Amino acid sequence: MRFLHTSDWHLGRSFHRVSMLDAQRAFVDHLVQTVRDRDVDAVLVAGDVYDRAVPPLTAVEVFDDALHRLADLGVPAVMISGNHDSARRLGVGARLMGRAGIHLRTDPARCDRPVLLADEYGDIAVYGLPYLEPALVREEFAAPRADHTAVLGAAMQRVRADLATRPAGTRAVVLAHAFVTGAAACDSERDITAGGVEAVPAEIFDGVDYAALGHLHGCQTISERVRYSGSPLAYSFSEEHHRKSMWLVDLRDGGEVAAERVDTPVPRRLARLRGHLADLLADPALERHTDAWIEATLTDAVRPHEPMAALVKRFPHVLALAFVPERGGEEQHASYAERLRGRSDLQIAEDFVAHVRGSAPDPAEREVLREAFDAVRADAAGTERD
């Protein structure tokens, strides 16, 4: 059987205030075309369909379009809720949609009830484990601790117990939304440490033929049978070097797995530029980034005048600008306490202005700071007398 494994669509999410809806629609087009062209038997979506619990109507419309198009193809889809989704909202109508071959798995209590598929080699049980927030599901699974390893381990015990009741030779696939030890994270994933220690060992998925994972946005192979598809689109500049894709997975007789990456459309390349403003504007080697979305970090000792306006003239798609002035000499290596030692409150305030702005206060600004400190001291002295 051939599966198409994807995850982390984050429908409704923007990229530094740039709408991604057109890019998300293009991804859905690409997914449907891949299902047609590559003879896909089932689609697996491992969570974070939406970017937030209450998605905008435009995002719901994109999802609705994807569901109708997959159902029209007669290709079953198994989807789980992720930590960004509202499991209750995503699961509305699940039983009705299941009749059309769209299987939404959002209830932790039903994680051991698989979608049963079949090919010429026999049955395949596809188990959907929605994102499990430890504090909320610990009681359901009678887990010994409220952490991710404990609750996911308990869920997998239920999966293995159900699989043991199936006919001999039944192959098993699990969808899960988690952070597996050894995987690499990036800036656009929401931290899930609040429920306890976040990482779970890959061995937790022992006993199944393939684990289709979601949550991390980089496509990764933890083992031959445990993989992240990653997000189909970049949602942070930390994904600059990601190759966005889906996994085309062939599950053969005896549980043998073969996987191939299928690239997804890239709406615009990402580039992170760093240096003095004059260098970024003049360096001919940066010409290749003219059409990219840009994150620029300026290292000038003094903050340039209207740097964004200057950058946009050369790089029309600058989306993020940071200012990190280069520090030289002993200041670069001195501790915070060492930099403050022996300095007055006024001097510390002047240093702060210089650090943030890149230039020291002028005489008029120093006078304003001095008057402010004098006023605070006078007020404090008056309070003590009272």
Automatic annotation (TrEMBL):
Domain Nuclease SbcCD subunit D C-terminal: 267-355
Record keywords: DNA recombination, DNA replication, Endonuclease, Exonuclease, Hydrolase, Nuclease
GO molecular function, a single term: 3'-5' exonuclease activity
Residue ranges constituting the Calcineurin-like phosphoesterase domain according to the UniProt record: 1-217
Keyword Hydrolase: yes
GO aspect biological process, one term: DNA replication
Family: Belongs to the SbcD family.
Function: SbcCD cleaves DNA hairpin structures. These structures can inhibit DNA replication and are intermediates in certain DNA recombination reactions. The complex acts as a 3'->5' double strand exonuclease that can open hairpins. It also has a 5' single-strand endonuclease activity.
Oligomeric form and interacting partners: Heterodimer of SbcC and SbcD.
Name the UniProt record assigns to this protein: Nuclease SbcCD subunit D
